C-alpha cells in the first residue's frame, strides 16, 4: 500500500503524478462527498455518498434500499473522491470491504457532526469501509516547464 | 425506461424527487464530467471520466490501461453524473453496455470538440455507452412548504 510521489507520467488528459498513500488519505479526509461503486452478480452500480474519513477508514450512512442490499450481497467496493482546482484535478480511489456497523456508539463526535443531518422518519445504518488499497493521482492542467 | 416526475419521497438526506427519463437525459447532456463504475470478477472499480452525450448515448476516450481492460472483460457499466446547486443536488445514473468503437469517423464534430484535448503521444480509443436504463433523482435541500 505504499509508493512515493513519482515524476509525472502521461495520461489521456496530460501529465499525471502518482500521490503517496499519506497524501492520498490527507486529500480524501479533506472532503465529504464521493462516489461509491458496488457490484452484484457482475453488474456494477454507483451512488453519490456523503462521508466522513478519519484518515484510516471511511464512514457513511445508508437507508434501507438498493445500496444497502447490494453492499450486504457483495461487500467489495470501490470509493472515489476527486477535486478540481485551477491547476489540476486530483482523484483518490480506495478499494475496500464494506461493513454494516451493529453499534454506532463507537462513532466519534467528529463523525456524527460531519455527516449531513438525517430526516428522522427514515431508518438508517452506519457503514464503514475497511480499506484494502488506496491510489491517488493528480492530473496537471498545464505541461510542466521543461517538458515541451 | 419511463416514469413521470413524482411527488417528493424521502431519502436519508431529505425529500427526493424522481426525474423523468427526458429530464434525466437533459441534465446528463448538460455536463461533461462523470463517474464510471466497472466490475471485474465481482470487484468493482471506479474512474472519473470526461464525456460527451448527445442525449441518447455517452461517449468518452480511454487510453490503454486498467479501465479499458476491465471494460473489455465485462462491458456492463454504471455511469453517474451529478451537480450541486443552492437548492438541491441531482444525480443521474445510467446502466449501460460499453462498446469500443472500431471507427471514429462516425463521431460528430460536437463530440470531437467537446471531449478534452488529448496528448498526442498517447494511444487511445473511443468508447460508447449504449444505455439499458436511466434514473434521475433530485434531493431537495429544504423541506417543501406544507410538509411540516
What number of domains of chain A?
A: 1
User: Into which percentage range does the β-strand content of chain A fall?
Assistant: over 45%
Biggest interface, chains and residues, is: A-B, 38 and 38 residues
Outline the biggest β-sheet of chain A. Answer: 9 strands, antiparallel
Say how many strands of chain A there are: 9
How many alpha or pi helices of chain A? Answer: 3
For this structure, the CATH topology of chain A is Pnp Oxidase, Chain A
Radius of gyration of chain A: 17 Å
Order of helices and strands of chain A: EEHEEEEHEEHE
Distance N terminus to C terminus of chain A?
33 Å
Shape of chain A: globular
Q: Into which percent range does the helicity of residues of chain A fall?
A: 10-25%
Give me the CATH superfamily of chain A: Electron Transport, Fmn-binding Protein, Chain A
The name of the CATH architecture of chain A is Roll
Mean pLDDT of chain A: 81
Q: Decide which structural class fits the backbone of chain A.
A: alpha+beta
CATH class of chain A: Mainly Beta
Poorly predicted spans of chain A? 1-7, 144-148
**Multimerization status:** homodimer
Structure description:
The structure is a homodimer of 148-residue chains. Chain A is of the alpha+beta class and 148 residues long. Chain A has a single domain, classed as Pnp Oxidase, Chain A (Roll). The first copy, chain A, is built from 3 helices and 9 strands, in the order ββαββββαββαβ. In chain A, strands 1, 2, 3, 4, 5, 6, 7, 8 and 9 form a 9-stranded antiparallel β-sheet that branches. The longest helix of chain A has 9 residues, at 21-29. Chains A and B meet through strand 3, strand 4, strand 6, strand 7 and strand 8 of A and strand 3, strand 4, strand 6, strand 7 and strand 8 of B. Chains A, B: This is Nitroimidazol reductase NimA-like FMN-containing flavoprotein (Pyridoxamine 5'-phosphate oxidase superfamily). Chains A, B: It holds the Pfam family Pyridox_ox_2.
